[in-house]
Design brief:
The complex is a heterodimer of chains A (394) and B (239). Chain A is an alpha+beta fold. Helix content of chain A is 59%, strand content 16%. Chain A has 14 helices and twelve strands. In chain A, helix 2 runs antiparallel to helix 10, helix 10 runs parallel beside helix 13 and helix 12 packs antiparallel against helix 13. The two termini of chain A are 28 Å apart. Chain B has a single domain, classed as Rossmann fold (3-Layer(aba) Sandwich). In chain B, 36% of the residues lie in helices and 28% in strands. Chain B has a six-stranded mixed sheet with strand order 6-7-8-3-9-10, with helices on both faces. A four-stranded antiparallel sheet of chain B has the order 2-1-4-5, covered by helices on one side. Classes of the chains: A alpha+beta (394), B alpha/beta (239).
Amino acid sequence: MLESFKMALRSIWGNKMRSFLTMLGIIIGVASVIILVSIVNGYMSYTVDSFSSMGVNQITVNFMSLPSRTIDVDEFYEFYEENTDLFAQMTPNVSVSATVKHGSDTMDRTSVGGYGEEYIDIKGYEVEYGRNLLYSDMVSRQKVALIGAYVASELYGSSENAVGEEIKLNGENFTIVGVVERQTEDLSDFEDGCTDDFVWIPYSRAAKMSRNATISNYTFTSYDIDDTDACTAALEDFLYEKMKSDDFYTVTAMSSLMDSLNEMIGMMSVMLGGIAGISLLVAGVGVMNIMLVSVTERTREIGIRKALGAKKRVIMEQFVIEAAMTSTIGGLIGIVIGGMASTGIGKLMGIDAPPTAMAVLVSFSVSVGIGLIFGYMPASRAANLNPIDALRSE
Amino acid sequence: MADKNNAPLIELNNIYKIYYMGDEEVRANDGISLTIHKGEFVAIVGKSGSGKSTLMNIIGALDVPTEGEYFLGGQNVGEMSDNQLAEIRNNMIGFIFQQYNLLPKLTILENVELPLLYSKMEKWDRRERAMESLDRVGIKEKWKNYPNQLSGGQQQRVSIARALAGNPSLILADEPTGALDSRTGREVLDFLRKLNDEGNTIVIITHDNSIALEAKRVVRIHDGKINFDGDVKDYARII
């Protein structure tokens, strides 16, 4: 056995150019499998990350139209209080289309909305100056506002100066009680319509402004992504009980959106992996081809070995090991190249794509397997050569 | 070896080897019976196409006869499987070929070790036996070289060393001097005779009568049949 390995290495080394060309197929195949799988994986975790920054544990309730039977805010809060073991936060959402003004300055693309006091926690933001919206602001429908850093810097010069100032929404004066810390990292992104361009007011006030007493949109968060199914179910039960029909609302969990996205990416990865797999198959045929040539070339050698008493199994072993070794070495080189390339490409794409252990393991065993499978046919041809004919060949 | 002193080493009973070339039947061996005892030095001589190579293949356990029995050291070789034949070749027969048939990518030592490797001998045993064998043919100091670094005569000596390494019951030489000039050919023949003097059984296959005359017994094959079998002195008289 050990001798066979030595002999195989020697034969591979003895035909460097040919061995390298044979390996090249395997190298490309293995490297492309690793690159594709790693990139797809990296992309997948990148989307998971960006989803969780958007709030992967969020569940949104939306009322379609407003039927006669409604649920008011207090009922939602009641439900929320009863289920604090499931839900981490909740807020009503009231979007307001309002012109934002301070003196003669107008903001064009500022998003204005009415929310509960927990909204800032759901977003994961922090107040930089002043204070957050309070429960008491909600109850008494205070004309107060929490604004983003962009609004503050545009209208008041800086976040610091904004606190305590007045801001006009649709002509009504609101007092700025706090400024949220800046979220955009690049200065070039700090512009109209950016994440820092917002004004938040108490939802109760917003509802009054929109002249619509009922609020049609709520956001809940669960403690853990894994709980979202239970949370969704609890919400649906609650809504159905109140509305007696599920035609009027939708409950959407972010995590299920992410699941379907991941499913799509997964399918893409299987498809790409399949294409790369085909290139591995082609490489295997290459190995078989070269081994057949090698058997033909070494017919005389095989004859001599058989005349000296080599049994079929020994000859078989020699050629199978040589084929397996060629493709294994190719596989190892492919893994190294694939690993480096996927890290490099990942960097270029701005994602973290290290080769996964799974991809490395699978492509390694596949390349060994290819050697064994595609080496078998030439090897058995060698083993079954008639020693007399083999000795006679030149 | 299990063979008793007077039991023959080789016993061929009515051997036929028949090929078909298209529709034509070729009787390469057409009823050959031959007995060779331990310690004999036999030359099998015949023109090309006479069937002597076919006979050599059968004696060398490289091939099995179409019909007839072949006993080598009491074992019925005619009915053996490929693997059993390989074992017989490995244990009982030392081949010396016209073209030396050394493996060019192995060193001299590794070439001589090859039959021992196939009989699963341990590495150090193998090495020792191979070196001993190389010493016997007088080219021990070349053990590290590769075949193409040696002259034809030296290469043939390596192949003799390889044949001897497994301590076979029979040394089978197929035109051993065919590729050598007359002087080195002479040396090889002298060496074979020396081996015979030491008690080895030797069978030479040749087309050359002058080489056949070096043996002690001559068997002449013509058209697949034996038409002379006797002492070399009698053979010398009829040619």
